[in-house]
Automatic annotation (TrEMBL):
This is Secreted protein. It comes from the Bacteria. The keyword Signal applies. Residues 57-100 are annotated as: Disordered. It comes from Streptomyces mobaraensis (Streptoverticillium mobaraense). Residues 70-87 have a biased composition (Basic and acidic residues). Keywords: Signal. The keyword Signal applies. Residues 1-35 form the signal peptide.
Amino acid sequence: MASRHHRPRRTTAVAALAAAALALPAVTACSQARAAADCGALAKDVQRDVGNLRRTIADDSKDPQSGQEFIDRINRDLGEVTRRTGADTDSDGESPVKDAIGEVTAAVDDIQDSVGDGERPDVTALSKAAGALTTACTKG
């Protein structure tokens, strides 16, 4: 009789371990899906801020500093994309999201250089880079 009581416990333990093993990939997949959704949402925020920056620069051509609020927002959103996707630009390995973040960062740097030089910045490269970020985020 002792063996009869022992088997159900072993069966229960094996079933619990099997369930945990099956759940782990689902949790990982869910986490990756959430990171992709966060990336996509933040990429749309960057796109919106680029559009606002473009309009601000066009509307107030006498003050190149007028778009700084949107530059700050873009930089903040890039930091969030990097953090949420694990696309740390200092780490080894390439990914489309990491590459796109680098493109947006370089374009923002160019705009800040133009503003610092008192010039009216060209937002074309930033618009293209923001589009590349949106594409990279949606492709995962």
